Amino acid sequence: MFAIIEDGGKQYRVKKGDTIHVEMRQLAESETTLEFDRVLMVGEGSKCKVGTPWIEGAKVRAKLDKEVRGPKLRIVKFKRRKGYRRHTGHRQDYLRVAIDAILA
Predict the structure, then answer these.
(1) Residue 31 in contact with residue 67, Cβ under 8 Å?
(2) Counting Cβ atoms within 10 Å, is residue 51 exposed (0-12), middle (13-18) or buried (19+)?
(3) pLDDT recorded at residue 44
(4) 41 within 8 A of 51, measured Cβ to Cβ
């Protein structure tokens, strides 16, 4: 069984045991699990439920693994013949979560 969830403006196709990276958010110190309640679709094969836009009462529970950082993106600004060059970089912060259960 798989589910399609929405979090942070992005959609993820998940099943039990998957590990995904989601947008970083503020968490309490004792918080070790996340619940995604914006479930767009649940099922397998021809037995799929599709929400309008979400399925009422459906949740995906995930265990917090750790905080990780994405790959470094290099940003270059350049103007020809003017001697203007600027180099900066960016690394996005993510939470790595492991999917425990799909409750539909």
Answers:
(1) no
(2) middle
(3) 86
(4) yes
DSSP string, 60-90: EEEEEEEEEE-PPEEEEEEETTTTEEEEEEE
Could you say which DSSP state residue 56 is in?
A: T
3-state DSSP assignment of residue 10: strand
pLDDT for 24 equals 94
Tens digits of per-residue pLDDT, 14-68?
A: 999 999 999 999 888 888 999 999 999 999 888 899 999 999 999 999 999 999 9
Q: How far apart are the first and last CA of the chain?
A: 10
- Residue 55 corresponds to which tokens in the numbers above? 């399925």
